[in-house]
Amino acid sequence: MKISIKKKFSFTIVLVLLLSVNFISCKDFVNAEILQNNINTRVESAKKTMKKDNVDFETYNKVMHKINNGEILESEKENSIPISIETYSEGEFKVKKEVFSDHSYILTKITDINKIEQTAKTLRRDSWSAWISDEGTIVSYDSFHRAITGAVVTKSHGVYWVSFTFDYDYSKVDGNINYTYSESSSSVGGTMSLGQSRIIKSHSDSFGPARAEMQFSFSGYSGVASYSGVVGITVDNYGASAY
């Protein structure tokens, strides 16, 4: 029995189409699996970071719901504007919390020297000229001058965080940044690139405070949640602040 060339050609076309459909289906399946793995990784990272950030139950649920749906948080978009900003003390840190429309947030923390001094007074160490805090920050002072070694600034976006350590001093007339070091971060589900922390202006003056900062960039796998930002400090005769 002979098969015509036309039938052979038709059979070949059908076979090619079937193989193409199967290839596309397999490719879509692999891409979907990669995306789900990335979502799962972001979920685990968010759980750890939000526990560290000590967020409330409502924030936790709202943020986790959005991450589970594969969505990018408002706090991870460079042009997002917070709907509220609050500042408060937590342990040995001053905290600035920026909250966005989807309940995601950015937390910026910096070592609170005033809180450390209050603790020292409570422990009757206020007569000492120097001491080390529970977080490892060393403070020495007299009636005119404060010198701080090992202060920390941290910025958290809910699913990752970055930080660096710095030494500074300030008096009733000025402030100085002496060193920045120990750059660190925690992130999964993507690649975190940290710039080196650097002192931009070492001494405060009539034109403004001393300033240091570190740039960072997070690139999520499969294009999920990419963000470039900066964490920094300023120092003047009132002490250190974060941005």
What are the defining features of this structure?
5-stranded antiparallel sheet; 8-stranded antiparallel sheet; 3 helices; alpha+beta; 243 residues
Helix count, DSSP H or I runs of 4 or more residues? 3
| Strand and helix order | HHEEEHEEEEEEEEEE
| Biggest pleated sheet | 8 strands, antiparallel
Q: Count structural domains.
A: 1
Poorly predicted segments: 23-34
Q: Output the structural class.
A: alpha+beta
Q: Average pLDDT, to the nearest integer?
A: 84
Helix content: 25-40%
Shape descriptor reads elongated
Rounded to an integer in angstroms, the radius of gyration calculated over CA atoms is 26 Å
- Number of DSSP E strands: 13
Residues in β-strands, percent: 35-45%
Word description of this protein:
This protein is an alpha+beta fold and 243 residues long. The chain contains 3 helices and 13 strands, in the order H-H-E-E-E-H-E-E-E-E-E-E-E-E-E-E. The strands form 2 sheets. Strands 1, 2, 3, 4, 5, 6, 7 and 8 form an 8-stranded antiparallel beta sheet that branches. Strands 9, 10, 11, 12 and 13 form a 5-stranded antiparallel beta sheet that branches. Strand 10 and strand 11 form a beta hairpin. The termini are far apart. 32% of the residues are buried.
